[in-house]
Amino acid sequence: MSTQDIFSAVLAFDEATVTAKTQAEIDAGTAIDSILNDGLISAMDEVGERFSAGELFVPEMLMAAQAMKAGLELLKPHLAEGQGQSKGVVVIGTVKGDLHDIGKNLVAMMMEGAGFEVVDLGVDVDSEAFVRTAAEKKADVIALSALLTTTMPSMESTVKAVKEAGMATRTIIGGAPVTQAFADQIGADGYSADAPGAVKLVKELLVA
Ligand code: B12
Questions:
Q1: Which intervals hold domain B12-binding (predicted)?
Q2: Which of 22, 77, 151, 153 has the fewest Cβ atoms within 10 Å of its own Cβ atom?
């Protein structure tokens, strides 16, 4: 038994085995980070590489994503740091034109786990919805996710809309094609490469 079994089960699109193996690793006391990174996330990286190589197609990507989500749900309670009073409000979503939500969901789960109130707008979210919701919820941070190079411009227009609305809400961005350089270029307040880093970033921004 190892996280390799989870990796293999995601690549076999075998949701039942992903669920069983993830639970078995949790019960065996395997580090949650290791289950997440070595089992689930690395399998999705492999799926991406096989897609790029023309060995897998969209339906298979979707099946792998469903299998991964099943494992992620089991990890959710373990990603919590402890409850208590809300540390701040974060509005999160995947930007306009983009339907990828696994990374965004992971960031949302870890933010919730760290004690933030998270308002998740889902996928394909336009600038107006981000700005309107952030104003309604008095959000401290708007967190934008994009997995496609073609949807990165939607991040820029959202960051611009937040500034034009004269809001104090900070913006942070992330997703596989996104970089710190891009965040600097579009004037976002922060970038992180992964979900734990996103939590750290928000904590730092709210102290500053
Ligand atoms: C699963 C998947 C899909 C699924 C999505 C299912 C779902 N519900 O999300 C489906 C099948 C729907 C899909 C569709 C498409 N996909 Co796709 N997909 C992937 C795949 C294999 C995995 C993505 C994933 O979930 N990774 C795991 C998560 C945990 O990682 P993550 O999202 O990067 O998130 C982490 C960090 O980036 C960060 N993060 C994420 N968001 C945020 C936000 C903030 C604020 C912060 C701070 C951090 C942060 O933290 C997360 C956790 O650590 C990737 C390959 C890859 N390796 O990225 C391709 C990939 C992203 N897809 C790709 C493509 C081309 C497409 C399609 C255009 C294919 C097509 N021809 O139709 C469509 C586009 C649909 C659309 N309009 O969005 C390309 C993108 C190429 C590019 N550079 O633009 C990739 C890279 C595959 C490839 N190698 O070519 N896809």
A1: 87-208
A2: 77
Q: Is the dihedral of CA 57, 58, 59, 62 positive or negative?
A: positive
Retrieve residue 9's tokens: 């089960």
> Rounded mean pLDDT of 125-148?
98
**Phi and psi of 91, rounded to 5°?**
-100, 125
- Residues 108 and 205: their CA atoms lie apart, in Å, by 17
**pLDDT tens column, 172-202:** 999 999 999 999 999 999 999 998 899 999 9
Token reading at 114: 């760290």
Ligand 1 site-directed mutation target among 100, 118, 179, 200, most atoms within 8 Å of CB: 100
Which has more pLDDT, 133 or 41? 133
CB proximity list for 182: less than 8 A, separation 6 or greater = 152, 155, 173, 191
- All structural domains of the chain, each given as residue ranges with its CATH number in brackets, are 3-79 (1.10.1240.10), 89-207 (3.40.50.280)
Distance CA 28, CA 1 (A): 10
Residue 167 Cβ < 6 Å to ligand 1? no
Three-state secondary structure string covering 140-208: CEEEEECCCHHHHHHHHHHHHHHHHCCCCCEEEEECCCCCHHHHHHHCCCEECCCHHHHHHHHHHHHHC
